[in-house]
């Protein structure tokens, strides 16, 4: 079998009403940094998490998609620290991280535009020897 190419990085592309306003939110709430601004777009990132925000004022609003407004899961190394950081930055609608039965500790973020993103940390799972 031939070697298959492996992903090195991923990015999320979001249609938002105002890329500038959404970028400011990601910067102020989660410390993302701008790194590219092609016409109609603002690209922000924190570590390996890359968000490409496109101004699409006529796009379907995320709340109109029901439960389909999740756009990804970002694995982090310290979910509780990220939660505290976001809360200190003024994010008030954020529920604290919770342990999930699939071995992840997760928190869900809803952007002002209505998109939802899961931040998650792998939990240590003890496996009993048989």
Q: Which structural class matches the secondary elements?
A: alpha/beta
Poorly predicted runs: none
Q: How much of the sequence is in beta strands?
A: 25-35%
Q: Quote the distance from N terminus to C terminus.
A: 35 Å
Topology as a string of helices (H) and strands (E)? EHEEEEHEEE
Shape: globular
Count the beta strands: 8
Q: Helix share of residues?
A: 10-25%
Mean pLDDT figure: 90
Q: Major beta sheet, specifics?
A: 4 strands, mixed
User: What does the radius of gyration come to?
Assistant: 17 Å
Strand order of the largest sheet: 1-4-3-2
* Quaternary structure type: single chain
DSSP helical segment count:
2
Characterise this structure:
The chain contains two helices and eight strands; from the N terminus they run βαββββαβββ. It is an alpha/beta fold and 130 residues long. The protein has a four-stranded mixed sheet with strand order 1-4-3-2, with helices on one face. The longest helix has 12 residues. It is globular and about 45 Å long. 18% of the residues are buried. The model has no long low-confidence stretch (mean pLDDT 90).
Draw up the topology in text.
Layout: E1 11-16, H1 19-30, E2 33-36, E3 41-46, E4 49-55, E5 70-75, H2 79-88, E6 98-99, E7 104-110, E8 116-122
Parallel strand pairs: 1-4, 5-8
Antiparallel strand pairs: 2-3, 3-4, 6-7, 7-8
Features:
130 residues, alpha/beta, four-stranded mixed beta sheet, 35% strand, 17% helix, globular
């Amino acid at each position: 079998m031939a070697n298959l190419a492996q992903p090195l990085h991923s990015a999320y592309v979001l249609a938002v009403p105002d890329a500038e306003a959404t970028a400011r939110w990601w910067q102020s709430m989660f410390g993302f940094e701008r790194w590219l601004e092609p016409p109609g777009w603002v690209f922000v990132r924190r570590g390996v998490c890359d968000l490409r925000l496109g101004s699409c004022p006529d796009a379907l609003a995320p709340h109109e998609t029901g439960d389909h407004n999740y756009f990804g899961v970002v694995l982090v190394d310290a979910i509780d620290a990220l939660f505290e950081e976001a809360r200190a930055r003024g994010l008030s609608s954020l529920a604290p991280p919770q342990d999930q039965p699939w071995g992840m500790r997760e928190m869900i973020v809803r952007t002002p535009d209505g998109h939802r993103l899961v931040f998650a940390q792998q939990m240590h799972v003890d496996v009993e020897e048989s």
